[in-house]
Specification:
Oligomer: single chain
Number of strands: 9
Largest sheet: 4 strands, mixed
Mean pLDDT: 95
Strand order of the largest sheet: 7-6-8-9
Low-confidence stretches: none
Order of helices and strands: EHHHEHEEHHHHHHEHEHHHHHHEHEEHHH
Shape: globular
Amino acid sequence: MNNAVSLPRDTNQALGIGQFAVDFLANRLGPGPSPAVLARTRLFHTDAVLCGASALALRTNAPTILRKEALEYADEGGATPLGSRVRVKAEKAIVANASAMREWDSNGTNFGYNPALGHVAGEFGHNDFYSVAIAACQQRNLDGATALKAMVLIDEIRGRLAEVFSLKTYRIDHVVHGAIASAAAYCALMGGSPEQIESAIGMFVAHYIPWRAIRAGKQLSDSKGASAAISSEAAILSAKRALAGFIGPKDIFRNPESLFRQFVKTAGDSPFDLVLNHSGDDFAVMGMHFKMGLYEHQSAGALQGLLDLIAAHRELLEPNCISGILIRAYEPAFGIIGDPAKRDPHTRQSADHSMVYIVATMLRKAIEAREAISSSEGTDALWRSLMLSPYDYSLDAINHPLTRELIAKIHFEHGGPDYDAKYPDGIPTSVVITTTNGATFDSGLIMYPAGHARNTSADLNAILNHKFALLGALAVPGFADIQGLVKGLERLDSMSAADLHTVYSFEIADRPGYE
């Protein structure tokens, strides 16, 4: 049975995405996603919600501002921001929730890699757009099963676009793919036609393209973390206008003046073929990566290498044992989190995109906890006990003397063509630690660290449960039932429409003073 819809480059792919979205949600294409796909998507959604709630609890700047803004746009027929029962304009709930979910840079990641089809553009992106599905279902009084399927749809569209078109190559921010998916899913959930979805996608691409300027500079701004949120807000505004009858640019992927054909010259076609799955196991979400704590995903291989070495050589944790650390990795990791300016971060947004800071912080925590670390502890247990939390990116942590001392000992270099050729199949990274007595310890090449879709050794659920407990303890007040919150989110697809109206309405703690 063919479980995919093909949208060739010589067709109107914007209209094709619209038709796919409508048919997928109406169950016209086949039996739909397998239980494994639905379970994986639920887990990514739970991860995103706990990231978002904890970011709000610690009063991080952009999520707090955007949530306050959202609450100024009350709408009885709208959607709910995290931590509130007040219904507001859908686009305002979405911008607030997406900003919060993305703030820690700790939710899921895709790699844009599908070698079976030769679709290996390697654009990354993140599971930032689930609140689009929730908002539309709250507006239309739809149930949790519909919301979960719409989340699969969003990840499928943005994930498959990431496989065929690398936005970062042209300095365009990766959130464009998620915004296109958001416009399609929102329109379809709201009862829109394929033609209206085409208009919504066309409007977004023509009017609202974000550049990677938001991710450049010595100390990054709130725009970096809020990029997906702001683009999803624009996508929903485009969708609302299309639903109201506004006609946007048609056939945008073949439009000669759109970003796609401006950067890739063709004789009239789109630059790519697009294949979207509708049934079975082979959905884009199944290739996405969980983060085992708070860190930029490109550093996951280095963290795995560090933990592997610590697990095998506890002597590395003795004070003043280490004289040097060499990390080798691929592009784009070296260019993004190896920027020399990030050797001296002063804000969380820069620290969490600094390879040397991330590795030095986990090593500092291990050295400080060396007496408590059991000699039999494997890397799964180390991931849990040393997991990087938001507090590891506070101003006190950023300026910790031991962290700064360890940063000075780290040399991060590009691994060259051999490493580059192995990305985005994996996260090719190696770590070599040299001790003061001249001994060297080599992690070897790390390809699939814990959390990676192709990792088969780590106990993913055990590590994620620890992460959920860690973030949940920040997110909810007092002795609230963290496990109850997690279990509630994990039953998303059995929620009634009434249940879905309050899925984000749990109380969020207030923990000022984080920054």
